[in-house]
Amino acid sequence: MKKQVLNLFALIMLLAAIGCSSDKSEPAAAGGDAAAKPKSMVSDEPDPLENKGVGPITSVELSATVDQAMADKGKVVYEKMCMACHKPTEKFIGPAPKGILDRRSPEWVMNMILNPEQMVKEDPIAKKLLMEFNGSPMANQHLTQEEARQVLEYFRTL
Amino acid sequence: MKNHSNLLSNLMLAAMVGFVFLLSSCGKASQGTTSGALSGNAASKVYVAPGQHDEFYAFMSGGFSGQIAAYGLPSGRLLKVIPIFSVDPEKGYGFNEETKPLLNTSHGFIPWDDAHHPALSQTNGETDGRWIFINGNNTPRLARIDLTTFETAEILEIPNSGGNHSSPYLTQNTEYVVAGTRFSVPIPQKDVAISSYAENFKGALSFVKVEPTTGRMNIEFQVLMPGLNFDLASSGKGPSHGWTFFTSYNSEMKNSLLEVNASQNDKDFVAAVNWKKAEEYLKAGKAKDFPANYMHNVYSDETHSATSTAMKSVKVLIPSECPGLVYLLPTPKSPHGVDVDPTGEYIVCSGKLSADITAHSFPKMLKAIEEKAFDGDISGVPIIKFESVLGGTVKEPGLGPLHTEFDGKGNAYTSFFISSEIVKWKVGTWEVIDRQPTYYSIGHLMVPGGNSMKPEGKYVVALNKITKDRYLPTGPELTQSAQLYAIDGDKMELLLDFPTIGEPHYAQGISAEKIKPKSKQFFKLSENKHPYVTPTEKDAKVVREGNNVHVYMTMIRSHFNPDNIEGIRVGDKVYFHVTNLEQDYDVPHGFAVMGATNAELLIMPGQTETLLWEPKKEGVYPMYCTDFCSALHQEMQGYIRVSPASSATALKWWLGEEKPVQ
């Protein structure tokens, strides 16, 4: 008897739910491993120099030598928009950009500037960095793609 | 066993309830139970799902709160309280150095007013979502709120006025907002016996020009009327564009016991002002310059600061010297609301003490003027014969009519204070179609766009004066109540009660789509022209100028720069000029320092605000961020060391590592 009632309950709820089936279904929220692992390297992580991150930038061409004019513009943008948290050559609120291209792909760097909210949720390296830097979020300072590219060029001079 | 079967029946019941609930939430329930005035599906009509937006913004005046509250309709959700005439410590409004000038008047800094009638700007007779204006009743003022920021952009004091009640009631292209005085006063003000009212007191009707691109206000002219009490106003539209109509009471011109003495005459007057004619007289040099003291306060989104300018004169037109400028329309009895219908043909007047609603006809008025169908004059202002201007009468629709709104389908909705109801009637045939009770004692009512040429006639909101038992009691002082009715069917249908802030008088409503896309997300740092901006952390510093200390401080998740300051002395005036370096949506930071006698700062991204702090005792004082900004919000804090007035403690500041004296 009890089982029948429970089945009936389930059936009624199912019918009612079907009645609502015109509602658009939302895609499931991104994965549940929010609790990031400790700092130790995990072998199945992507090669940081190949990983382009998540965001609008899929490919960046770097010239053989630094474009100094572009880097100068990038320095101005960097000092206005980034310096509150990133000193060029030493760890501060966030990591220092010196030598960043030895550690990351240029696309990853620009995506981290342009799309930090999604990066710290979805990109394995950015997720780890968020925890390493005390959960202090990378602020989206709404640089244009052009400005982010200039900042990247400036990083090459550090 | 018995318990067991009870459990089973309970489960059955739960299943059935769940079934009904789920069906209802799909909006498919055809008929529910009727409870009082509510029909069963009212809830689904006001339900806005979590994360979804309302269809309309509603802007409710706060009355004696001095503010406007923005709500979503149909949900009745409160979105923001916009501080205008009253200080607001929550936002630092009127407490930070930047907004203090907005509250300057010729009487000094005034932290409060009584705000009654919001008016959305219009283009071609339609709300355009650029600005909302509102009157300050007590110390006569007009304010303009920018609807990209939902912040007060300008406050203009109105001179020669004794209470700015018939205001702003703007014209169809926002050429003018008007400001008619409730109290007549000596103009210019002087020390005279109150009993010399009839001889010395005048009523000024001000026409404030609005610059079409910036919205900046300027008193273009005042019409010096006899000593009537101007109550409400409505500007013409379509064919009647160019005219503004003001109701008045106290045609008896008494100055005491008005509830008796100003209720003697069967008819009072609507003053019809031809402002296009006034412009001609102005051009022809007919205006007189009257000395006047009033303040004009303007806020800039570039400097994030307001400035006050003392104004010294106004241009005044005297009706007896300007034929055709203004006429009086006799109107029964002690008329309160005046509302021009969307076609611009009828001027609907609600005589508080009249059994009927009186609608004057604009074409008939023009004809009467042409034929000089006058019945004498007051101080040179012709009185048009009542019969010559009367367009129609709604016979005995209820008790105590106050205000009328329109739905754009030929229907009018009038509020009745004494009989506590909304009555729907047909413009032109004057027949009553429907009536619904309000809970209780409705004042104004509002249809989105219902005072414009293009009403969005889906809802009417009743703004009630008395709440009594409608909500959980909160001691002697109760919230005021708004009620939402659907008016898209033949019958009005009560959908929702929701509390409001202060006492709502009039309100305005507008399709959310006219405002939403233009809403500002943050201020660009590169456009910040505040004189004390700290554009980067490199520029953070502390500067002493005698006893004034200027702290150029930045904030970003999650630190201040500097966050340690030494060398402040008792007796100093410390100005914290704090710049929020964030350039993202919804990342404000707050700033508070112990012992501050004003309030906090609440600083939007890209903005600079200043808090004045005058420490009275030596010691080390904490400061911190008040608006939860990140996981490390609690760490966003610092110290200020205050030394005795005579001390030689060096002025130092730093973030992270202590730096030598700079």
Plain-language structure description:
Chain A has 158 residues and is an all-alpha fold. Chain A has one domain (48-158): Cytochrome Bc1 Complex, Chain D, domain 2, CATH 1.10.760.10. Chain A is 46% helix and 0% strand. Chain A has seven helices and no strands. In chain A, helix 4 (106-114) crosses helix 7. The N and C termini of chain A lie far apart (76 Å). With 662 residues, chain B is mainly beta. Chain B folds into two domains: 56-518, YVTN repeat-like/Quinoprotein amine dehydrogenase (Methylamine Dehydrogenase, Chain H, 7 Propeller); 528-654, Cupredoxins -  blue copper proteins (Immunoglobulin-like). Chain B has seven helices and 46 strands. In chain B, strands 6, 7, 8, 9, 10, 11, 12, 13, 14, 18 and 19 form an eleven-stranded mixed β-sheet that branches. A six-stranded mixed β-sheet of chain B has the order 42-41-44-45-39-46, with no helix packed on it. In chain B, strands 36, 37, 38, 40 and 43 form a five-stranded mixed β-sheet that branches. In chain B, a hairpin with a 2-residue loop joins strand 24 (374-378) and strand 25 (381-384). Chain B starts with a helix and ends in an 8-residue tail after the last strand. The model of chain B is unreliable at 1-9 and 11-36 (pLDDT under 50). The interface between A and B is medium-sized, with 29 and 37 residues.
